[in-house]
């Protein structure tokens, strides 16, 4: 059996929704409880931690599996195995961004325009120091423990923080000059647990259920008919997850391709496929399915 750490706070609601959709509802005495159970025979218990803590408690073996943000996996440097990635954020079906922002009246248009010694407030000091080192700029990183926007101008000249819609930045008269990272949720496992055949089987089963639950509502299946002599133009326009389904039964000169992509990318992708020479494109939903590994 495996132990599971789930995020408390900003990622909590979406994590619970994902698990419920996957047929793995988390049961606890109240919304304030930090302990729970999951309807899966292979999961012994569930505990809730801040997203920044989860890579650490999974990395050190306290928990076998955890769901957190890719930003905290990178920031902590914890040694974990990334089992699955989900590009959703707290309020949208898109990943969130870790950005560098300055007051709206600041002349800088990129990190290269900031003076050496610039004070940057952030909850991500390790990522921040690495970013400025790679950018060839010397920055004083001011560690923030929340409400990072409030650190400007008294404690910092700029800030590095996560955004989804950018509403909070606009409300505080700040402007993005660089996107440092694009991040989504990640299911991470303890390396020793993942190397153990019995626990790996449970981990992969849970991951497949979550993947199917996330892909179903947020993605679509495109079926594309294209002339065989236009494949060289059509294939590059297909989604990243694509395959050749075979030849068209009604017309031997036509080829059928299929691919899975996020719903938000459908209009642009269909336009690109038709422009590349596809004859028609059919969009359909994706059912929830999963297969498990033997324990």
Describe the protein's topology.
Elements: E1 2-7, H1 12-21, E2 26-27, E3 35-38, E4 43-49, H2 54-59, E5 65-69, H3 70-76, E6 81-86, E7 96-103, E8 118-122, H4 125-135, E9 139-143, E10 158-163, H5 167-171, E11 174-183, E12 185-189, H6 191-195, H7 197-218, E13 219-227, H8 231-234, E14 241-247, E15 254-262, H9 266-276, E16 280-284
Parallel strand pairs: 1-4, 1-5, 8-9, 8-10
Antiparallel strand pairs: 2-3, 3-4, 5-12, 6-12, 7-10, 7-11, 13-15, 13-16, 14-15
Catalytic activity: 1-(5-phospho-beta-D-ribosyl)-ATP + diphosphate = 5-phospho-alpha-D-ribose 1-diphosphate + ATP
Domain ATP phosphoribosyltransferase catalytic: 50-200
InterPro entries: ATP_PRibTrfase_cat, ATP_PRibTrfase_HisG, HisG_C, N-reg_PII-like_a/b
Considering the chains and any ligands shown, give keywords for the structure:
295 residues, alpha+beta, D-Maltodextrin-Binding Protein, domain 2, Alpha-Beta Plaits, 3 domains, 7-stranded mixed β-sheet, 5-stranded mixed β-sheet, 34% strand, disordered C terminus
